[in-house]
Write a structure and sequence with these properties.
Layout: E1 13-19, E2 22-26, H1 33-37, E3 42-49, H2 57-63, H3 67-74, E4 81-84, E5 89-99, E6 102-112, E7 116-121, H4 128-136, H5 146-179, H6 186-207, H7 210-217, H8 227-293, H9 305-328
Parallel strand pairs: 3-7
Antiparallel strand pairs: 1-2, 1-3, 4-5, 5-6, 6-7
Helix pairs in contact: 4-5, 5-6, 5-8, 6-8, 7-8, 8-9
InterPro entries: MgTranspt_CorA/ZnTranspt_ZntB
Subcellular location: Cell membrane
Membrane topology: Multi-pass membrane protein
């Protein structure tokens, strides 16, 4: 079998072959897939980077892939899902990681047959070396065939979701500390709140459908997961549930932070207005007294020195009394 996609595939395809639970070969050409998988007891992993429909034609004939599944594998922006076909399953999922407060996703697809796992990476965001490392860390599970490979893939993807949620939680905790800082929340808190909320909304779209994906894989009528591997898939399912619930709670928390930010802003504005009103009342006393004494009519003390002293004392006493009263009530 010639390499899928001709000259475009070298350096973009990775292969592994297990036989009877033992890693027999890896890095072999795609053209050898047919001959190597013809033997009994073999399990194949093939990884392709951003292939086109033509690149999958040979694999379609070799593994009986459904045309609709092949079309979904090359199209971008598919939702996370698990489609069941007579001879295979089609999985669509997203790996994620954080860059600051921005969530970056990497779309990937997988064909799951009784003897092969074919992964399709639609960009460079998914760390395939981490996937291989996860498989190598569990050599005792190799005898479980495709279920072992698929568990490793889901485990890496879901762990990435969990790590992203945990990182977002840490950033939200830091945001809460800034919210009640003495120097005020500032526009930075509001900006970061919206960025975090946007990342959480995107993460929810990725994480939430994974519950149904993993749950379907564990169904006995799928005939993919045996009794021993069922415990490992259940562990992945538990992580999916925790990541989903955590994401939901963080979305609510960010909404609360935004509302609290507006409440704090309103309260501080009220405090400022209260202080300004107090000072305005104090300043109004000298204005009223001097305005009264500035009338062009005779009054007690008019044109005499003691009249000036009386007006000054009147201003000082009334202003001081207002200041003391406002201060005692916490207005100043």
């Amino acid at each position: 079998m010639p390499p899928a996609g001709g000259d475009a595939v070298p350096g973009q395809a990775r292969t592994r072959l297990y036989r009877e639970g033992v890693l027999e070969a890896e890095g072999f050409p795609v053209s050898e897939i047919g001959a190597r998988t013809a033997r009994t007891g073999t399990t194949l992993w093939l990884d392709l980077h951003d292939p086109g429909a033509a690149d999958l034609e040979i694999l379609t004939a070799e593994f009986g892939l459904h045309p609709l599944a092949v079309e979904d594998a090359v199209l971008r922006h598919e939702r996370p899902k698990l489609d069941r076909y007579p001879d295979h399953l089609f999985l669509s999922a997203y790996a994620v990681h954080l860059v600051g407060t921005e969530l970056v996703s990497s779309e990937l697809a997988a064909f799951v047959t009784t003897r092969a796992l074919i992964t399709i990476r639609k960009d460079d965001g998914f760390d395939v070396d981490a996937l291989v490392g996860r498989w190598d860390d569990s050599p005792d599970l190799r005898g479980h065939g495709v279920g072992y490979l698929l568990h490793g893939l889901l485990d890496v993807v879901v762990d990435g979701h969990f790590t992203a949620v945990q990182s977002l939680d840490d950033q939200i905790e830091q945001l809460q500390e800034q919210l009640f800082a003495e120097d005020g929340a500032g526009i930075e808190v509001q900006r970061r709140s919206f960025q975090l909320r946007k990342s959480l909304v995107l993460l929810r779209r990725v994480v939430l459908p994974m519950r149904e994906v993993v749950n379907t894989l564990m169904r006995r009528d799928v005939h993919l997961v045996d009794e021993e591997m069922m415990h490992y898939f259940q562990d992945v399912y538990d992580h999916v549930l925790r990541a989903t619930e955590w994401t939901e709670s963080l979305r609510d928390l960010v909404t609360t932070i935004l509302e609290t930010r507006l409440t704090i802003q309103g309260n501080r504005l009220n405090e400022i207005m209260k202080k300004l009103t107090g000072w305005a009342a104090i300043i109004a006393i000298p204005t009223a007294v001097t305005g009264f004494y500035g009338q062009n009519i005779p009054y007690p003390g008019f044109g005499q020195q003691w009249g000036v002293v009386a007006s000054v004392l009147l201003i000082a006493s009334i202003s001081g009394a207002l200041y003391a009263m406002f201060r005692r009530r916490g207005w100043l």
